Amino acid sequence: PNFLQAASRRGVPVAVVNGRISERSFRGYRLARGLLPQFDWIERYCVQNAAYRDRLLALGVASSRIAVTGNMKYDGVSLRGAPAGSAPLRSWLAGDDRLVLVCGSTHGREEEWLFDALARIAPRVPRRVRLVLVPRHPERAPSVVETLAARGAPVVRWSQVGEERPRLAGDAVVLVDTIGHLEAFYGACDVAFVGGSLVPHGGQNMLEPAALGRAVLFGPNTWNFRADVELLLAAGAVLQIGGRNDLDAALLRLLGDPALRAALGERAVALIRDNQGATARTLELIAPLLDRSLGSHDDRGR
């Protein structure tokens, strides 16, 4: 409040960009009515969606001060397609025409649950599947290897794969125990599972595989990406399950239906493209405020 008040006294216009107001904050402001006058010190609200606009309206902000400009995050999401390294990775992983399932940013026991689910459904999947596990924290690799070894699964650690990439054994699981390679592996897959979502972590970035046009699957715990998930689900661009007990059915559905995989990927790319442009819209709205402020300072200097 002190900053806003000082700016108001000095005639410095203030704008909120990429604005959001959570349900919790909204309830708090409604209870603390004495804080509401500070909203008048802000000249322009550029908010991410209509829900945030409606909350500001309910708090008494004039509609003329609010514009729904979209989420600037989407302007930072590239739609250039899979990185150059994905094509050779795909050839190595798919081998004799396998499907590729990449499980990215996994936490806790997610690797174990995913391996077990795939093992259960494998006889019913039309093509064989290569499983790629990418733990969020590479230092967990030894424990993941131990878990898979207990199930009799051969594991190939990415950190130990040389330039020549020897042919993978038929049932080998690839464990990516390095940082910085997830996008390339997502670009090489047919289905991407986004981790941190079957355990109470809050999820990981599902826009990354979605922007590559991949079929994306994740669990119920995605509160860190709530707005993204709502948009993706509304567009029918991803598949979300209620828990690990739903993994078998979801994986079987995605791995067995190429048309569904393609449709999910196309919808995801279209959604991201449609939500880009927020930065330009925001700049257009705040440019007059900047011009006015600069002009005011020039006048003072004369």
Provide a descriptive summary of the structure in words:
With 302 residues, this protein is of the alpha/beta class. It folds into two domains: 99 residues, no CATH class; 189 residues, Rossmann fold (3-Layer(aba) Sandwich), CATH 3.40.50. The protein has twelve helices and ten strands. The strands form two sheets. Strands 6-7-5-4-8-9-10 form a seven-stranded parallel beta sheet. It has a three-stranded parallel beta sheet with strand order 1-2-3, with helices on both faces. Helix 5 links the parallel strand 4 and strand 5. The longest helix has 24 residues. The model has no long low-confidence stretch (mean pLDDT 95).
Mean pLDDT level = 95
Q: Helical percent range?
A: 40-55%
CATH homologous superfamily descriptor of the largest domain: Glycogen Phosphorylase B
The total number of structural domains is 2
Provide keyphrases for this structure:
Rossmann fold; 302 residues; alpha/beta; 7-stranded parallel beta sheet; 3-stranded parallel beta sheet; elongated; 42% helix; single chain
